Amino acid sequence: MASAFVNQQGMLTMIDILHHGATTGVTGSCHELALNSGAQKNGILIDCGLFQGQDEGRGASASDLSIDFPIGHIRALIVTHVHIDHVGRIPYLLAAGFEGPIICSEPSAIMLPEILEDALKIGFTRDRRLIERVLGLIRSRLVPVPYGQWHSVFDEGDSSLTVRLQRAGHILGSAYVECDARVGNAEERIVFSGDLGAPHAPLLPAPESPERADRLVIESTYGDKDHEDRETRRYRLKAVLEHALEDGGTVLVPAFSIGRTQELLYEIEGLIHEFGGDLWSNLEIVVDSPLAAEFTRIYRDLKPYWDAEATERVHKGRHPLSFEQLTVVNSHEDHLNAVNYLARSHRPCVVLAGSGMCAGGRVVNYLKSMLGDKRNDVLFVGYQAVGTPGRDILTYGPRGGWVELDGERYDIRARVHQVGGYSAHAGQSDLLRFVQGIPQAPKEIRVVHGDRSAKEALKTKLEGLLAQPQILIPE
């Protein structure tokens, strides 16, 4: 993994890529770009994320989040976006002695302390003073960089590194990272995709391919399949909501706080606006996640980063993320009251509650109360990692199976749906377009951040499209 790379001129360089996560699955993203100049070594990390489910790194896992690789030479951390599987281990990185800057986009700089505060409370400590100290340290290290602007990380002796962030279209603030690395006379541009968004997703502009990439590290979450187009998934969302309207059930959406929640609210507002009438006016939308509510507020505040369609809605006087039928539940007491009320009542409702893979959070209480009632629906709109309750519900629910939640078995009688088009990830065709859009094909492509079958499928497709590529699946 740490061998030198032979560039186009046949020169042996000492610019290495190492992977510390997202090689056994889709979580724990953490990659290293190392520049070796004689006895001197400098490097950067791209993301430092949490492992979930059965994913693991070299020695770290969901149960052991310690930093299991040397960091003394790491000069900076580049954050592609603030999803927990990309930033969740930052507190552990700081605890291990990392003292460099945290470089990210301007929206990510606003959101990162918010997401890490929640992560600290859940998995690190309940000590408020310690949390504030860690958050203060993180804020002091943040270096917001505008999209499209080169930023120098270091330039010392015969080695230098500059980075540039470009819109990735995944969630607000998401970026792919272009790295211009130099050691002696050897120069390379290496691109890390982070998580790429799907074209025509609500709210955010689609990503554009980089102008150059000598080497590319690309995600493959959906490397083996394409998503439904927007009209198809919108129709399917409408059909699920109409089922709730007909029988007074609850549509439970295990939602990721950032990205999916805001996109769904945007689409639901559009459906209510289009169809209206007494039937749709009875549908209540509940966001039961303080974190999701906070990020929805941040999304509203950062309208300059929205796409043209969303901006036009605002100009017409509509409020896609703050409409009349939307209710936000904050306190734990109100959450429990909402669970009990919806389990008993026959009022049609859509509940978006965290966490997205049902591995904790408020969605678990809803699942315990509602999975056994056929009036209800569970709608998955994001990837469900192996080993998570979400994956089990998706797998066994349609067959009338059961799922274990907090050590107890719960029968699944609610209908289970998956609308993959609302995933914030690019599908296979989108990933291939991203690569094909690079004017000169990369000499090396590393496929990460996917289940084995997805990585293999994307690798096979790329080999069929590109002339003599070196395509690797890091272990």
Detailed description of the structure:
With 475 residues, the chain is of the alpha/beta class. The chain has two domains: 15-225 and 424-472, Metallo-beta-lactamase, Chain A, CATH 3.60.15.10; 230-422, Rossmann fold, CATH 3.40.50.10890. 32% of the residues lie in helices and 23% in strands. It has 14 helices and 21 strands. Strand 20, helix 14 (452-465) and strand 21 form a beta-alpha-beta unit. Helix 3 (106-123) runs antiparallel to helix 4 (128-141), helix 3 runs antiparallel to helix 8 (290-301) and helix 13 runs parallel beside helix 14. The model is unreliable at 1-12 (pLDDT under 50).
Which descriptors apply to this entry?
475 residues, alpha/beta, Metallo-beta-lactamase, Chain A, Rossmann fold, 2 domains, seven-stranded mixed beta sheet, six-stranded mixed beta sheet, 14 helices, 21 strands, disordered N terminus
Layout of helices and strands, plus pairs?
Elements: E1 15-19, E2 31-37, E3 40-46, E4 74-78, H1 84-87, H2 90-95, E5 102-104, H3 106-123, H4 128-141, E6 142-144, E7 151-156, E8 159-167, E9 175-183, E10 186-192, E11 215-219, H5 230-247, E12 250-254, H6 260-275, H7 277-281, E13 284-288, H8 290-301, H9 308-315, E14 326-328, H10 332-344, E15 349-353, H11 363-370, E16 377-380, H12 389-396, E17 402-405, E18 408-411, E19 415-418, H13 428-436, E20 444-448, H14 452-465, E21 470-472
Parallel strand pairs: 3-4, 4-5, 5-6, 10-11, 11-20, 12-15, 12-16, 13-14, 13-15, 16-19, 20-21
Antiparallel strand pairs: 1-2, 2-3, 7-8, 8-9, 9-10, 17-18
Helix pairs in contact: 3-4, 3-8, 10-11, 13-14
